[in-house]
Amino acid sequence: MSHPLDKGWNKKAPPLQGRGLGWGLSIERIQWLQKRAAEMRRNPTEPEKRLWRHLSNSQLAGHKFRRQAVIGPFIADFLCPQSGLIVEVDGDTHDGTKDRLRDDWLGEHGYHVVRVTNLDVMANIEGVMRVIASAVNAAPSRWNSPHPNPSPEGEGLEIVAR
């Protein structure tokens, strides 16, 4: 018997079945990442709370941000999907080598990462917001171009007679 949340996914099927991009990850790994991201949204650090107060509700020039967004095998602190901008708030525990590898992977997949420190967020939020605003305004909109796989002409336009 299948779990009610599996929506017909088959664990033996390729990772892309019914999962959007999939990123080549197993269903279990995607579910774990989503669960971990939800936990991180429920228990943000103080700098993340402060930055979210400035990014939420499209306050930054109308740009929408998401918190703890799952992108491939990673969880981004903040993501502006329209510009592909990721904002990472780094504490004392960040590993520069791992961060560079992560940033390179994200860059190869069309994302740009801006890193700010906990100290910057807590002591200079105005400066942090200027840096983020500059980066988001410099990034091209990912939604201005036509969809790479448009639906066939007329599909979805049927008029239902009543």
Core attributes:
single chain, 162 residues, alpha+beta, disordered N terminus
Task: Write structural notes for this entry.
The chain is an alpha+beta fold and 162 residues long. 36% of the residues lie in helices and 15% in strands. The chain contains five helices and four strands, in the order H-H-E-E-E-H-E-H-H. It has helices at 27-42, 46-55, 96-108, 118-123, 125-138; strands at residues 66-71, 74-80, 85-90, 112-117. It has a four-stranded mixed sheet, with helices on both faces. The chain is globular. It starts with 26 loop residues before the first helix and ends in a 24-residue tail after the last helix. Mean pLDDT is 81; it is low at 1-9 and 14-19.
Structure at a glance:
With 162 residues, the protein is of the alpha+beta class. The protein is built from 5 helices and 4 strands; from the N terminus they run H-H-E-E-E-H-E-H-H.
Write the layout of secondary structure elements.
Layout: H1 27-42, H2 46-55, E1 66-71, E2 74-80, E3 85-90, H3 96-108, E4 112-117, H4 118-123, H5 125-138
Parallel strand pairs: 3-4
Antiparallel strand pairs: 1-2, 2-3
What integer is the average pLDDT? 81
Number of helices: 5
Q: Please state the overall shape, judged from the principal axes of the Cα atoms.
A: globular
SSE-based structural type: alpha+beta
State the major sheet.
4 strands, mixed
For the CA atoms, what is the radius of gyration?
A: 19 Å
Proportion of residues in helical segments: 25-40%
| Residues in β-strands, percent | 15-25%
Q: What distance separates the N and C termini?
A: 39 Å
Order of helices and strands: HHEEEHEHH
* Low-confidence sequence ranges: 1-9, 14-19
Largest sheet, spatial ordering of strands? 1-2-3-4
How many DSSP E strands? Answer: 4
